[in-house]
Amino acid sequence: MSATQPTTAPPAGPAHTVQAMLEAPLSLRERKKLKTRQAIRHEAYRLIAAQGYENTTVEQIAAAAEVSQSTFFRYFATKEDLVLTDEYDPAMVTALLARPSDEPFLRTCREALVGLIRELPQDERDELLTRMRLVRDVPALRARMHETANDPQRLYLAALTRRQGVDEPTFEMRITAAAIGAATTETVLRWAETGGQQDIADLVDHTFAVLERGFTGL
Q: Can you give the pTM of this predicted structure?
């Protein structure tokens, strides 16, 4: 082969840091499944933006993502689950556990969550805004938001329990996780209500500042 001939390009890597964190522990098969899941979700939000949540069917989403309806249901049990779940939990847990073990947990959550949000590209921030607007506006989604599988409290409690090296969380740990979960949920809903006018990373950072000062002055 001559020097002027192009060589085969290496496989494209993850587009951003958070995606890299998601893909790092996965096998090739699992990475393909992750990308299929993300493609289905992306097409769903595109359709919902164009024609509304209620008018968008699983059949339409599957067709747009070029998968069968049975494949859709392998990834999402219902259309509601497509909105109420995401792929970021593993990256969040990794970021939380990577922080110094002697750091106050509120500070750990603040640094990890704000750091991850700042790494998100604009299109993923836009999808997050779409999700939270749907949760705010669709009663069925709002009603299911606090089910155990969808509650952010679960993620914070799991990370805190692992970091403390205990099998069962204490009451104090449960209260801490509940407070952080409720505060961050309220924050992203507020962000959605204002149409995403504020920078979400700055808004989350402010939320943790309020928590860290213990509501002093309120």
A: 0.80
